[in-house]
Design goal:
Nucleotidyltransferase, domain 5, OB fold (Dihydrolipoamide Acetyltransferase, E2P), 5-stranded mixed β-sheet, 5-stranded mixed beta barrel, globular
Length: 715
């Protein structure tokens, strides 16, 4: 383990080195982030998932840096260029940029203007000029005129020498560092519309003539500009004031005031325009893209967490409807476990006769299948179908809920859906997905690629590997925070359990189908390829509700069962008594059970679990309904106060569904009366809110909303 990296990470994250060491050791031993955060608190000093993930990612970056450093050292050594001084500099480099700057003069070169000039024997002339002593450059250059080497004039000799000096300037690590600092602090990013592309790129009109400091440009604007450039609508440039850049370089390289110095000055200007600026601009493009990507991925991950951790309806019989006008409404009846009992189609929007038939059928289905909730997709015909259902006079105990159906069509056509429902078409599968995502959003949404759920910001423009890692981390975190009932969970849900993955998830399903429900956590060890390491990582996150041992339905890890049994034995009761009787738990002296591996954090977690075994961290489900008088965008008027659900949070504000098939935007300036830097400080995806309508643009289909208390006195 690299102690330098440990110290660096500890300093950057403001952690104790022993915390970083313990975390890295656990990660290297293939422990997962949720497992470390939940069950190894004593080792890490109770680090949370965010800190553990940061350590994991930073250590990976530093190890990649080490790989590149080793490759450079090997290359230099093989070519006989590695000196003790150079080796020391390379080993001291703490960033990839610094490492590459040091290596640049020694990198194998393609044929450039400078290398051609060196081939023509002009390097001694460049060295004389670079010293900037009193001399006559033309007289010095005349010596190097050589027809055989294609140096046919004094000016050609001087130009070649300047090319060599320009290369030296470009390869100077100190100059690059100072120039890079200028770009980071003072570069402007600017965009202009490409001639004749105004009509094609109307959606980029804001960027047709745009300039702002790169350091202040928010992620969504950087990504928008990059997309406009990729679509050949915009031209984009990044640069500081040229005078400032040249002043920095001249201060370093132009050290006298004579004719030789003037040649160096010309070379410095050429080096900046031809070599350094393009290199720095490329770096800034990459750095700004990485920064924008990180912010977009962070926002996407937070939105995804909001969706996955939305309050579940729970185990209730559901009638789910995928609405439609011409093709009718697809209806499915699901039992308390989400199993499909019945499916049909009704046509409430195809004339009075068919509307009456649909009404009779819905009433009959509600009675036959003892329906407790009706879930209606919020797509085409959603509000009209909701109005139809609410007008049926159904018993008051039947809840009617609109469900965001984003991604349902993706699921219905997927391999996952075909495996689950091989005998049903996509319309039935889509309706089932709508019902199930109301019952348990987490269990259903893990079956869909997160990018298809509709809560991202420029998700197709960002680094796809980093996006996948960020979203996978979020799904894994959510699944393990809630816990998984191993005897009913789908393969997709099991896949995200700590220590499992697709193969073991499938093996669990296969074992369950062959042998029936798992009677205990210990029985999981009979699953093919589920060895001790996987069992250690997964067991605490898997639940078995009907197990003989009551701890199997809790988040207490099997490695601590003996400890809980000792507590019960000391009180002369059973573990179940301990879980059911708060007075018994109060008698436990936790200090008595502290050991080298079990500290107070773990003991407190155990006590919390004994009080509420297998508790669900998600909030309690609360019914929601839109304003009955507002069904289309034409019904929306400025000044209205409307209930809504946050569907997407971006860097510039939040989108809210008010039930008109067109989400309204609460701009970041309208989220609160105070200044808001990050919209996620104020709202989360799936949060219910009351918004005031500021403006309605029917032509462009845009609704402007506000959450400010000053404008919403009724909130």
């Amino acid at each position: 383990m690299n102690t330098v990296h440990i110290s660096q990470i500890a300093g950057e994250l403001k952690l104790a080195e022993k915390q970083v060491v313990a975390t890295v050791r656990l990660l290297d031993d293939e422990a997962t982030v949720p497992f470390i955060a939940r069950y190894r608190k004593e080792a890490t000093g109770s680090l949370d998932e965010v800190a553990i993930t940061s350590i994991r990612d930073r250590m990976a970056q530093l190890r990649e840096l080490d790989k590149r450093r080793d490759a450079i050292l090997k290359s230099l050594e093989e070519r006989g260029l590695l000196t003790d001084e150079l080796k020391e500099k390379l080993e001291a480099a703490q960033t990839l940029t610094e490492l590459e700057d040091i290596y640049l003069p020694f990198r194998p070169k393609r044929r450039t203007r400078a290398t051609i000039a060196i081939e023509r024997g002009l390097e001694p002339l460049a060295q004389v000029l670079f010293l900037q002593e009193q001399c006559d450059p033309e007289a010095e250059a005349e010596v190097y005129i050589n027809q055989e080497k294609e140096v046919i004039s004094i000016e050609e000799a001087l130009a070649g020498a300047r090319d060599i000096i320009a290369a030296w300037v470009n390869e100077d690590a100190d100059a690059r560092a100072k120039l890079r600092e200028l770009y980071i602090d003072n570069a402007m990013i600017s965009t202009h519309v490409i001639s004749s592309k105004e009509a094609d790129g109307a959606k980029y009109a804001d960027y047709f003539d745009w300039t702002e400091p790169l350091a202040d440009a928010p992620s969504h604007r950087i990504l928008a500009m990059r997309r406009g450039e990729a679509e050949n609508i915009l031209s984009m440039g990044i640069a500081p004031d040229e005078k400032d850049a040249l002043a920095i370089l001249e201060k370093i390289f132009v050290v006298s005031d004579n004719a030789a110095s003037e040649q160096v000055r010309l070379a410095v200007h050429d080096s900046y325009k031809r070599l350094l600026h393009p290199a720095m601009e490329t770096e800034m493009r990459l750095e700004s893209r990485n920064r924008a990507d990180q912010e977009a991925i962070r926002i996407f991950a937070e939105n995804l967490r909001g969706l996955l951790m939305a309050p579940p309806l729970g185990q209730k019989a559901v009638l789910a409807i995928d609405p439609g006008f011409r093709t009718g409404c697809k209806v499915v009846c699901l039992d308390e476990q989400g199993r499909l009992d019945h499916h049909t189609a009704v046509f409430p929007h195809s004339g009075e006769a068919r509307r009456a038939d649909a009404a009779s059928e819905i009433r009959a289905l509600c009675e036959k299948y003892k329906v407790k909730v009706i879930a209606i997709g919020n797509g085409t015909a959603g509000r009209e179908t909701e109005a139809f259902i609410r007008g049926l006079g159904l018993p008051k105990h039947i809840l009617i809920e609109m469900v965001n159906e984003s991604g349902a069509s993706i699921y219905s056509a997927s391999e996952v859906a075909r495996e689950e429902f091989p005998d049903y078409d996509v319309t039935v599968r889509g309706a089932v997905s709508i019902g199930r995502r109301l019952m348990d959003p987490l269990a259903e949404l893990v079956k869909i690629d997160p990018k298809s759920i509709g809560v991202g910001q420029y998700q197709h423009d960002v680094d796809q590997t980093a996006l996948r890692q960020g979203l996978d981390d979020t799904v894994i975190s959510c699944v393990n925070a809630v816990g998984v009932e191993v005897n009913t969970a789908s393969k997709q849900l099991l896949t995200y359990v700590s220590g499992l993955g697709p193969t073991l998830a499938q093996n669990i399903i296969a074992y369950r189908e062959q042998n029936g429900p798992f009677p205990s956590r210990q029985a999981l060890q009979k699953v093919t390829r589920l060895g001790p390491k996987a069992f250690e990582q997964a067991a605490g996150f898997l639940r078995i509700t009907d197990a003989k041992n009551p701890l199997d339905r809790s988040a207490v890890h099997p490695e601590r069962y003996a400890l809980v049994q000792a507590m019960a034995d000391d009180l002369g009761c059973s573990v179940l008594d301990l879980m059911n009787d708060e007075n018994l738990r109060r008698k436990i002296d936790l200090e008595k059970y502290i050991t080298e591996t079990v500290g107070m954090p773990t003991l407190r977690d155990i006590m919390d679990e004994l009080a509420k075994p297998g508790r669900d961290p998600r909030q309690t489900f609360e019914p929601f309904s839109y304003d009955d008088s507002v069904n289309t965008i034409e019904d929306v008027r400025p000044g209205m106060l409307l209930p809504g659900i946050v569907t997407n949070v971006t860097a510039f504000g939040a989108f809210v569904d008010v039930g008109v098939h067109q989400d309204g935007l609460v701009h970041i300036s309208e989220l609160a009366d105070r200044f808001v830097k990050d919209p996620a400080e104020v709202v989360k995806v799936r949060q219910t809110v009351k918004v005031r309508v500021l403006d309605v643009d029917l032509e462009r289909g845009r609704i402007s909303l506000s959450l400010r208390q000053a404008q919403n006195p009724e909130n």
